[in-house]
């Protein structure tokens, strides 16, 4: 599978108060159906949350236009209600969790590098390629 040129991958980290972890997990099992619909309508897909030691939460999603998705959710009454309820779970967060989380910088993506490597390989055949052997005709 290759990445569409317009797709943006977003990863972020937040810290959950350790004493509220069980409740936070419960609140996501399941998320309100109307909030799920708003996330989808905003253009976010392949959205996951991962919980690490000490309440470290890593989120990941893909979108074609992250600014538009952020703007859509900022105007959403459903998202505003959800985020108002979720805000108390996070340590040292200034603002709504969906808008205040700082995205992490992506430094490696397997599909991108495989695509680039395959493109470079097709432009420069390897020395073991039969087309490079002396006396080989095309």
Automatic annotation (TrEMBL):
It holds the Pfam family rhaM. InterPro entries: Dimeric_a/b-barrel (IPR011008), Rham/fucose_mutarotase (IPR008000). Residues 115-138 are annotated as: Disordered. PANTHER family: L-RHAMNOSE MUTAROTASE. This is L-rhamnose mutarotase. It comes from Microbacterium arthrosphaerae.
């Amino acid at each position: 599978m290759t990445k569409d040129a317009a797709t943006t991958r977003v990863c972020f980290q937040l810290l959950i108060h350790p004493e509220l972890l069980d409740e936070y997990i419960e609140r996501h099992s399941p998320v309100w159906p109307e909030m799920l619909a708003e996330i989808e309508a905003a253009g976010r897909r392949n959205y996951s949350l991962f919980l690490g030691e000490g309440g470290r939460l890593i989120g990941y999603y893909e979108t074609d236009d992250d600014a538009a998705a952020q703007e859509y959710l900022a105007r959403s009454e459903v998202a505003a209600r959800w985020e108002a309820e979720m805000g108390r779970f996070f340590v040292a967060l200034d603002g709504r969790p969906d808008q205040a989380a700082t995205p992490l910088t992506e430094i490696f993506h397997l599909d991108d590098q495989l695509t680039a490597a395959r493109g470079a390989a097709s432009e420069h055949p390897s020395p073991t390629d039969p087309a490079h052997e002396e006396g080989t005709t095309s």
